[in-house]
Amino acid sequence: MTGPGLREQILLKETENAGEKRKSTDNSTADTVVREPKMSNGPEQYFTAYDDVSVHRLMVRDASRTEAYRRAVLENAHLFKDKVVMDVGAGTGVLSLFAKQAGAKKVYAVEASGMTAVLKEIIELNDEEGVIEVVEGRAEEVDIGGAKVDIMISEWMGFYLLHESMLDSVILAREKHLDEDGIMFPSHATIYAAPVKMDEWVQEEFTDWSDVYGFNMTPMAQKAMESRLGSGQPEVTCLAPDSLLAEPVPVLHLDLRWVQREEVEKVEDRKFVSVTREGRLHGLALWFDATFNPMLYDEDEAAKIHKVVLGTGPRDVPTHWKQTVLLLLGDGGQTLEEDEVVGWQLGMEQSASNPRQYSLSLELLDPSTEEHPVPCICRMGKCALIKALLDKEEEEMEDMEELPPQLV
């Protein structure tokens, strides 16, 4: 196995924890996992990390990522034609070059890391017309002469979408630079979660100690388990589609044209789902979709949009983001049967000392005693009945809306 990429190293370093808390109550199935990041060198460390060429190689050579952006821009060239564009966190400048290729009349390539000098050289080699202007500094702070941009494009997404918290900078830059009728690329983003089994990973990490050259070394397995849980590190890995124990459910949906920083400072999500594949519950996997499908007031222009979705889940083509798994390894993982209901309370909260870090928490819930959200997609009788009634009410409301005014 190859070692983790730099983005993964940053994730693992910043989500270390002095220990894992576990509690058992009458209303819980026992597992509570808390990830508290250690103090780091602060937000400035984020920018210096992107001085490393290997990070940019990792991202540019991620074909799913880069091709999604290329298609989103070039297949929607009518949106970029003769428009002013800002590329937030331009890096190698590839997104700025796509925007120029699509017909933008002006592109501001904004970059705050030490890569700015290299970025300028890349632009000089590929932009003879002088469409792209490299701007050094943070996008939320730079001065572009009071100009407003029509489109703001950025690849700001971190692991499980929010890690690195570059979205904060994008939101502030949007408020400062984007025209009131401007659009965001991507336009929407959604975090998904699903309970997963990781049999092969558990075998490799722990179980193999049962037979080492014919000797039983299972105490090492226990030590390895304690060490892994004590580190508090999520596991960043590419999961197979058959590792999903239930259908993925949305955790958070963001309209990037309007989302505010307060909405992503703290995220709480409670879910109950029905198991669709039996197996041991080893963790909760998180990933995201980024969608290029901006809402336009002009119906003719809106009809021309080619929707593009960049998916990073187990059923998608693998990306460098992979999936982030919050581990639940007590007793080797709880065994789940098909149609059994499993519930959890997931928390994501920005660190007060360094907003680019998130503390992640996960608690398993007892579906028979804990309150379910309404509506709830699990198949327990009460939830299924409430959902059916709500669906029927929604259908009746839609039918009413289709009636002529005089019949309502």
Protein described:
- The chain has 13 helices and 17 strands.
- The protein has 408 residues and is α+β, with helices and mostly antiparallel strands.
- It has two domains: 6-371, Rossmann fold; 373-402.
- The strands form four sheets. Strands 7, 8, 9, 12, 13 and 14 form a six-stranded antiparallel sheet that branches. The protein has a five-stranded parallel sheet with strand order 4-3-2-5-6, sandwiched between helices. Strands 1-17-16-10 form a four-stranded antiparallel sheet.
- Mean pLDDT is 84; it is low at 1-6, 10-30 and 36-41.
- Average the pLDDT over all residues and give the rounded result: 84
What structural class do you assign from the helix and strand content? alpha+beta
Distance between the termini: 65 Å
- Taking Cα atoms only, what radius of gyration do you get, to the nearest Å? 24 Å
- Per the CATH scheme, the topology name of the largest domain is Rossmann fold
Largest sheet: 6 strands, antiparallel
Number of helices: 13
**CATH superfamily label of the largest domain:** Vaccinia Virus protein VP39
Q: Would you identify the CATH architecture of the largest domain?
A: 3-Layer(aba) Sandwich
Number of domains: 2
* Low-pLDDT sequence parts: 1-6, 10-30, 36-41
The ordered string of helix (H) and strand (E) elements is HEHHHHEHEHEEHEEHHEEHEEEHEEEEEH
CATH class category name of the largest domain: Alpha Beta
**Helical proportion?**
25-40%
Give the amount of beta strand, in percent. 25-35%
Number of strands: 17
Basic shape: globular
